[in-house]
Structures are given as structure tokens and as C-alpha cells.
């Protein structure tokens, strides 16, 4: 085990605050997991001091996902046909009034799920569903199994290969419905399978289904016509269609992310706009925000619920005030990254790690670090190769001597 | 509030304060109430001088409410924000942060006697604190050799009418602080509403007195009636705790069913803010008939039987009494 993971900052709290605890330390730890655009590897960096903690060799270039708990990071290796679980090494135990943090070395969890063309990865309530486009099959595994190193997955089939998605929704599974007439095109809706895998009602239409996210107790899929909004119904998921407002220009959402702390969704809408969505209200559910140029990537701020960030092709990071529905600040970080060319060309990605916003700059081989409070650049972290996808894991908690 | 009472209140204000500015405040006080019951109190105290926006509306469950960006905007432009406190509004801190409001956040349970859940809370939920776990800023409670005794406070203080009077007093204080010109009106309104609360309390006590003592154990969905029990002597059992956030486990339900059989519960009720399924299941397993719907953490909509606090409390005790005596 390496020792520098303990570079997590430690601040001893006044012992007099508690009567019986001999000693409690407040610890903050944040880690960045970064994949490479060309090489099969995941680099782990301590976000607090910028030190490299480890590099994991995997089988192909990966897109990364972190679990809600932050205990697991997944490397979805589309071309290699593998999804690998990585234990982040950071975990929390909630004690209501405070939380305990446990910090260990990150490691490959030893669980790999294989199949043809893994694509969309969705977590719901601690269950992960990976969709394998080449087979039209979803494989579902729990976080517990992954961390125990047990490849205990179950499998749910759709009728045909498709660029699809599945969500393990309690005892039901939501599955994209392939386009039968045009198998190369996006799915046309969502069907619901019960515990036994049997469809429980018809297909909920969602033409050009692409993009899924959760915010609080609501799940949404993006369609050409609007959103499919899923909430807990009486015994089975309740699904309704929220059409795009008439006031919106022509366009659709194909990437969706969900707010944390505040319940909302943020999606692209055309190339140079994003849309803020509150699916719980009837009027003004959609607020459109114009960007100066085309959008490259966007992320929500899980700590400062008021903000989300959008990176645009002119090399700027924008701070989006989701309450006011406007861009509050902009900051030039990189050379231009044109959205002309292939959708999967190396371009920046954004992650938030505590008080820092981190942006990958694949062509320069660096991560740009921005202070989330001042919205000013505070430094760079060099990463070998072409740092591309990025996720962060961490937080603050207490450690106790003798526990 | 009846028209006469309101008029009386206004006249009272004028006569007792002859030098008050003759022009009413140009703009009404912008008040945000976290949930429907507080909004009703605020309307009774504020009358025509306040505009109230309610975050968690009729039949809504504040324990699990998810605040929206629009709520943050509402709170951001408020003059006064009225909340229950005692962790009833789990969403409050993040909402206030996102709103960047300068308005006072007034906890209406301040100064009251707080009941604590007797059960030891042994939640060691893994993984709840994810990214941005900033809620653990300080060690407020000590560790006792690895055990965590928390004794959650019960936030449902409004279920005692006596406490409702405290809410009303705190609202009047908050309105006076924000709008001194209207203070006499607020005080007079609070006073007359307080009289209605006193009458209500007497009604509830009289109704309870008609229920034989050995028939005063009943079942609801969640532990929302601790203050009612404490004040009026009806024992409430529930499968869920003081928050609806965590669902009852199978063993909680089994233990409750056992207890119902031992304690000879007289009646069982669904609640307006929770799914009736679990209560229906317990009813069928114990042979109790569901005695109706109680209003716990929210009012009904304006056409329902509990559109105001006074109506809610009357509806609840009438429903309880009817189910027990009819059984
Ligand atoms: Zn896709
Ligand atoms: Zn409650």
C-alpha cells in the first residue's frame, strides 16, 4: 500500500466538544479518477495536493462513472467490451449528526462485466445497470457485490441490439425499446419489466431516446418530444411524458444530468444552448439558456446546489446559476476545442471535487483547477497522456481513535 | 378568521396607536411558509398585510420534500421565512444556502418543550454521505465507546394546540420585527386567533374524555402524534418513526402487529401524507378496520375536510372518537 493517500488533510477538533470521545479528527479527502482518450488506463490523483496516487491498467479506453456513495468508480470500456469496478478507497458512515470517513488505497475491485459494446451506465438506489448495445442486454449488479469482488449480476434482455439504456428501479427494470423499423437508430420508448422480467404495460413512447438522469426522487429520460418523467407510483413506477414547451425553438435534449440539493435537470438543447428543467411544475418547466458557442460538457455542483458548470468549445468554463437561470461567470481555461469533427474526439470534461472544479485538457495533458467559491483558476495538475473523462470522489468526515 | 374579528383587530390597532402612519405599508410583507400548517397560522396572524407562499403544499410530505430552483428564488426574495425547525424540513439548509436569502429564518418551535423519540437510534447507514459531505462540520455529539445515542427530536409540535399558540406568538414576533407599522395588527390578530385555539383545545379534551381509558390506543402510519399523545392522553403506535424518510422494515411491522395484539389497539388510521398500503396491510392482519384518514403533517386542499389548522384538529379528533366508539 502506498502511503501518500494519507495526505488527506487532517484537522484535530477541540476535544472538549465531546465528553466521552477521547479523540476525533475531521478529515477531508478528495480523489480524481481520470481516464485516457487513447490508452487503457485510469489515473488516480489526490485532488487536495495534486499527487498521483496510482494508475490502473485496464483493457481499453474508458468512460468513467462514480457511484452515488462514492465508494465505487466504473470504467466502461466500450471498444474492449468490459466494465471494470474500482474501489475508490473512500467511504462514509452516516451517524445522523455527523459522518465518519474511512480512507484507504484505491484498488481494482476485481469485478468485470463483459459483453458486446457496453454503453450507458445507470445507478439507481445502489444497483448499477450497464447496457450492452451489441447484444441489447442489460446486466445489473449491486454495489455490495462489486465491492466484495463478486460478479453476481443478473441480466435483462430487450428484443434487439440498440444504443440503449436500462435502470434497475426497485423490483422493476426500465428498458429502452429498440427501433424495429430502423435498428441503427435510437430507441423509441421505455418499457417496464417486473421482477420476473415480464413487461407490465405497454411501451411509453420516447422517440430518439438518449440521455437519462436522476434528481432526488425523480428519474427522467430525454426524448425528441420532451422528457419521460418517472416517479414512485403505487407498487410500480409511474411514468408520464412532459412535452417540450411551445416557447422553445426546435431542438431536443440528448444529454441529461440531475441536480443535487435542488431538484432539477440540466440538458443540452441544440448545440449552443442548455435547458434547465423542473418537471414538477406545469408552466415554465423549461428555461432555455443561450451559450456563446457550442457546448462541450456540463456538470452540476453537488456542494453548491445553486451552480452548474458548462464548458464551451471556445475554451471557456461557465458558472451557471440554476436559480436565476443565467450564466453568472465565465473563465477562459483552454485553447479552443472545436465541436466540428467526431463526437468522441478528445475534448475537456468537468468534475467538481469539494471546493474545486477540475477540467481536463486532453491535448495539453493537464487538469485545470478552479476554485469553486472565487471562480478563479488556482493551478494545473499534469497527467500523462490525454486526460479525458474525469470523476471525483470524496468529502469530509471524522475519524476516531480506537474504532 | 371571521370578518368581524378581523375588523375588531384593525380597530384595536388604530385606537391603541393613534400616531401610527395613516398610510398602510405600500407593499405587503413577503412571507414564505415551509408547509401548509404554518402558512395557515401565518395567514391568521398576518391577515391582509402579508403575501404568503407555501413551499410544501396541501397533503405534501415535508420530511422528504425536494426543493426546486424556483423555491430558492422564492426564498431569495422573501422578507420573512417561517419554518418548523427540529429537522422537520430536511431540505432547509441547502435551500437557504442556494437562495442566498437575507431574510430571517424563523424557527417556530423555538422556546417550546421538545419531545425526543424514546427509542435509541442506531442508524449506521453506510454510504449516505456522498460527495460534498459538508454536513459533518463539527462534533456536536460525543461518541460513547462507538455507540451513538441520538434520541431524535420529534418535530411535530403543532399536534398539541398548546404549542400552536407558541407558533402563533413566534409568528407575531417575527412579523413585528419585519414590519413594525403592522405590529399592533399582528398582535391583535394573534390574540383573537389564540382564543379560537383555546376553544379548540377545550373541545379536544372534552372529546378525549368521552373515550374510555382502556380504548385510547390507536395506530397511524408514522410517529407524528407524540405531542398529541403527551398533551391529550391518546396513545399512538406507528410502523414508521418520526420521519417518513426511512421506510418501516418487515421486523418493525411484525413487532407492531404483536404490540397491537397485546395492547388491544382500538382503531387504525391512514394519514394524508403517506401511502395507505402499509396501514391497510396491518389492518387486514390484525382484523382492525381502517377508521378513516387523519391529517398529520399537512392540511387538505381547500375543498377537503382539513383546509385550516382548526378544521384539521377537529377533523382528527372527531375521526378518532368516531372510529373508537363506533368499534
Ligand atoms: Zn449514448
Ligand atoms: Zn411527520
TrEMBL record, chain A:
InterPro entries: AztD-like, Quino_amine_DH_bsu. This is Zinc transport system substrate-binding protein. SUPFAM superfamilies: YVTN repeat-like/Quinoprotein amine dehydrogenase (SSF50969). Residues 1-24 form the signal peptide. Keywords: Signal. The keyword Endoplasmic reticulum does not apply. It comes from Mesorhizobium muleiense.
Automatic annotation (TrEMBL), chain B:
Belongs to the bacterial solute-binding protein 9 family. Residues 183-217 form a coiled coil. Residues 120-157 are annotated as: Disordered. Gene3D superfamilies: Nitrogenase molybdenum iron protein domain (3.40.50.1980). Its main location: other. This is Zinc/manganese transport system substrate-binding protein. It holds the Pfam family ZnuA. The keyword Signal applies. InterPro entries: AdhesinB (IPR006129), AztC-like (IPR047701), Bact_metal-bind_prot9 (IPR050492), Lipoprotein_PsaA-like (IPR006128), ZnuA-like (IPR006127). It is found in: Cell envelope. Keywords: Coiled coil, Metal-binding, Signal, Transport. One of its GO terms (biological process) is metal ion transport. Residues 1-25 form the signal peptide. One of its GO terms (cellular component) is cell envelope. Residues 120-155 have a biased composition (Basic and acidic residues). It comes from Mesorhizobium muleiense. One of its GO terms (molecular function) is metal ion binding.
Amino acid at each position: 500500500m502506498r502511503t501518500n493517500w494519507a495526505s488527506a488533510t487532517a484537522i484535530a477538533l477541540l476535544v472538549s466538544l465531546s465528553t466521552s470521545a477521547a479523540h476525533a479528527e475531521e478529515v477531508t479527502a478528495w480523489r480524481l479518477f481520470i481516464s485516457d482518450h487513447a490508452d487503457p488506463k485510469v489515473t488516480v490523483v489526490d485532488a487536495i495536493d495534486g499527487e498521483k496516487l496510482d494508475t490502473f491498467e485496464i483493457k481499453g479506453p474508458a468512460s468513467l462513472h462514480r457511484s452515488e456513495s462514492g465508494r465505487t468508480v466504473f470504467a466502461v470500456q466500450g471498444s474492449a467490451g468490459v466494465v471494470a469496478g474500482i474501489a475508490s478507497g473512500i467511504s462514509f458512515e452516516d451517524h445522523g449528526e455527523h459522518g465518519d470517513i474511512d480512507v484507504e488505497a484505491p484498488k481494482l475491485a476485481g469485478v468485470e462485466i463483459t459483453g458486446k459494446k457496453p454503453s450507458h451506465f445507470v445507478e439507481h438506489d445502489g444497483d448499477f445497470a450497464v447496457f450492452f448495445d451489441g447484444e441489447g442486454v442489460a446486466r445489473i449488479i449491486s454495489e455490495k457485490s462489486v465491492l466484495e469482488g463478486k460478479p453476481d449480476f443478473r441480466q435483462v434482455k430487450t428484443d434487439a441490439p440498440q444504443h440503449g439504456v436500462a435502470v434497475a428501479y426497485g423490483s422493476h427494470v426500465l428498458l429502452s425499446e429498440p427501433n424495429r423499423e430502423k435498428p441503427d437508430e435510437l430507441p423509441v420508448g421505455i418499457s417496464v419489466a417486473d421482477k420476473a422480467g415480464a413487461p407490465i404495460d405497454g411501451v411509453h413512447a420516447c422517440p430518439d431516446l438518449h440521455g437519462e438522469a436522476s434528481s432526488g426522487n425523480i428519474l427522467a429520460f430525454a426524448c425528441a418530444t420532451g422528457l419521460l418523467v418517472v416517479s414512485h407510483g403505487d407498487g410500480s413506477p409511474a411514468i408520464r411524458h412532459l412535452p417540450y414547451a411551445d416557447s422553445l425553438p426546435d431542438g431536443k435534449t440528448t444529454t441529461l444530468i440531475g441536480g443535487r440539493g435542488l431538484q432539477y435537470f440540466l440538458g443540452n438543447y441544440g448545440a449552443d444552448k442548455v435547458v434547465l428543467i423542473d418537471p414538477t411544475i406545469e408552466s415554465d418547466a423549461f428555461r432555455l439558456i443561450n451559450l456563446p458557442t457550442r457546448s462541450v460538457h456540463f456538470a452540476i455542483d453537488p456542494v453548491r446546489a445553486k451552480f452548474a458548470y458548462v464548458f464551451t468549445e471556445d475554451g471557456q468554463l461557465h458558472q451557471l446559476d440554476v436559480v436565476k437561470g443565467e450564466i453568472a461567470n465565465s473563465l477562459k481555461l483552454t485553447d479552443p476545442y472545436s465541436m466540428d469533427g467526431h463526437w468522441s474526439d478528445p475534448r475537456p470534461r468537468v468534475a467538481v471535487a469539494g471546493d474545486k472544479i477540475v477540467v481536463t485538457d486532453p491535448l495539453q495533458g493537464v487538469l485545470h483547477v478552479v476554485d469553486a467559491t472565487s471562480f478563479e483558476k488556482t493551478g494545473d495538475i499534469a497527467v500523462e497522456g490525454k486526460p479525458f473523462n474525469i470523476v471525483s470522489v470524496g468529502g469530509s468526515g471524522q475519524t476516531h481513535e480506537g474504532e | 378568521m371571521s370578518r368581524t374579528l378581523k375588523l375588531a383587530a384593525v380597530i384595536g390597532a388604530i385606537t391603541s396607536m393613534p400616531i401610527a402612519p395613516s398610510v398602510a405599508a405600500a407593499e405587503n410583507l413577503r412571507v414564505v411558509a415551509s408547509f401548509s400548517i404554518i402558512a395557515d397560522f401565518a395567514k391568521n396572524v398576518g391577515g391582509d398585510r402579508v403575501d404568503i407562499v407555501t413551499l410544501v403544499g396541501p397533503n405534501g410530505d415535508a420530511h422528504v420534500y425536494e426543493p426546486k430552483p424556483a423555491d430558492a428564488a422564492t426564498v431569495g426574495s422573501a422578507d420573512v421565512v417561517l419554518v418548523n425547525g427540529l429537522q422537520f424540513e430536511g431540505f432547509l439548509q441547502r435551500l437557504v444556502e442556494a437562495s442566498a436569502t437575507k431574510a430571517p429564518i424563523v424557527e417556530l418551535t423555538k422556546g417550546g418543550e421538545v419531545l425526543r423519540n424514546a427509542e435509541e437510534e442506531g442508524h449506521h447507514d453506510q454510504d449516505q454521505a456522498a460527495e460534498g459531505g459538508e454536513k459533518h462540520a463539527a462534533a456536536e455529539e460525543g461518541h460513547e465507546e462507538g455507540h451513538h445515542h441520538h434520541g431524535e427530536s420529534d418535530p411535530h409540535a403543532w399536534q398539541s394546540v398548546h404549542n400552536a399558540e407558541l407558533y402563533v406568538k413566534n409568528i407575531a414576533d417575527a412579523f413585528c420585527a419585519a414590519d413594525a407599522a403592522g405590529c399592533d395588527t399582528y398582535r391583535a390578530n394573534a390574540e383573537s386567533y389564540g382564543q379560537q385555539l383555546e376553544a379548540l383545545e377545550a373541545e379536544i379534551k372534552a372529546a378525549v374524555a368521552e373515550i374510555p381509558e382502556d380504548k385510547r390506543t390507536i395506530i397511524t402510519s408514522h410517529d407524528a402524534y407524540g405531542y398529541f399523545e403527551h398533551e391529550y392522553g391518546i396513545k399512538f403506535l406507528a410502523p414508521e418513526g418520526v420521519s417518513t424518510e426511512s421506510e418501516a422494515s418487515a421486523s418493525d411491522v411484525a413487532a407492531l402487529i404483536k404490540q397491537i395484539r397485546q395492547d388491544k389497539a382500538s382503531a387504525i388510521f391512514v394519514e394524508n401524507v403517506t401511502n395507505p398500503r402499509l396501514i391497510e396491510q396491518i389492518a387486514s392482519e390484525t382484523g382492525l378496520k381502517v377508521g378513516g384518514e387523519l391529517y398529520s403533517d399537512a392540511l387538505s386542499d381547500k375543498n377537503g375536510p382539513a383546509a385550516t389548522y382548526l378544521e384539521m384538529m377537529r377533523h382528527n379528533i372527531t375521526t378518532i372518537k368516531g372510529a373508537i366508539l363506533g368499534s
